[in-house]
Amino acid sequence: MSTSATKVSGAGTGTTAVASRKRRLLQDVPSWLLIVPSLLFFIVFHWQPLVTGFLLSFFETKGYNAVRFNGLQNYIDVMSNSVFQQTLVNTFLYVIWSLAIGFLVPIVVAVMINEMMHGQSFFKFAVYFPGMVPGVAGALLWMFMFDPGPGGLLNMMLGKLGLPMSQWLQNSDLTIPLIILTMTWRSFGGTVILYLASLQGVNNELYEAAALDGAGIWKRIRHITIPQISHIIGILLILQMIGVFQVLYEPLTMTEGGPNNASMSLMLTSYHYAFRYFEAGRSLAVGVITFIILAVMTAIYFRINKKSNTD
């Protein structure tokens, strides 16, 4: 008798569990309906082109159509090209100059705005406004300023001061720093806003305690501000390196990679292969090489960061 009751009880428990799972699934249906369109969009317009491009980089192409499989030949042809080798050096120079010119600027500006008693809203808008300008439009604006002729805005200012005119973007030694200056002007505002949000989350009691101990503003910034926002600094460092590694609009619009390939970037090389020479396979090979370099750099950074945090 007890055995039968146990079986009935077990069956009832199993039925209840199944019914409960069905109710949970039904409750999740609206959530899935909201997620599915975004998921399909992501798969169709992001992952599908990525996978297709990766596979196509191993094929000989005629225009944008795969003709036959040729293994690593596209990669060999690309990497043996002297222009690509110079482009690789240029891309690392872009990263180095972006860290020298543009990495500390958002942090300094964010700290200055955060310390203001009045006018914070105005300065937040002022630093973010250049980021609202489209990339190509911003590059054209700066190109007119850097015009090497007597009609260029900066050369006109130099002439008024009695100074000799400069070739600006036509000077191969100045091309990359000037392009980085353009990129910094257009993009540092959004980074400033992120730093401001992080700074406003720092506990004010830490500053008050440091002030009572006689710490000046520089010591407070060094020992409180920077450590408290170090996590966001690390993340934005990686994002900046990734963004600069993929620079395209500025050199395309302002110099077309010149003079003498001095401002050529990896993405501009990929663009030229695809839309100037119509060699899709080699263009995609450059894209894959760029992805591998960025993945390795990111992995190295996170490994070093994890080790330093553990120590």
How would you characterize this protein structure?
This protein has 311 residues and is mostly helical. It has helices at residues 2-56, 73-79, 82-102, 104-115, 120-128, 135-145, 153-160, 175-199, 204-212, 217-228, 230-245, 249-254, 266-275, 280-310; strands spanning 59-62, 65-69. The chain has a two-stranded antiparallel ribbon with strand order 1-2.
In short:
This protein has 311 residues and is mainly alpha-helical.
Helix content: over 70%
- For CATH, the homologous superfamily of the largest domain is named as MetI-like
Relative strand content: under 5%
Question: What is the SS-derived class?
Answer: mainly alpha
What's the Cα radius of gyration? 28 Å
Compute the number of helices.
14
Beginning-to-end CA distance, first to last residue:
65 Å
What do we call the CATH topology of the largest domain? MetI-like fold
GO cellular component, one term: plasma membrane
Subcellular location: Cell membrane
Family: Belongs to the binding-protein-dependent transport system permease family.
InterPro entries: ABC_transporter_permease, MetI-like, MetI-like_sf
Question: Main attributes?
Answer:
311 residues, MetI-like fold, two-stranded antiparallel ribbon, 14 helices, 75% helix
Break the fold down into its secondary structure elements and pairings.
Elements: H1 2-56, E1 59-62, E2 65-69, H2 73-79, H3 82-102, H4 104-115, H5 120-128, H6 135-145, H7 153-160, H8 175-199, H9 204-212, H10 217-228, H11 230-245, H12 249-254, H13 266-275, H14 280-310
Antiparallel strand pairs: 1-2
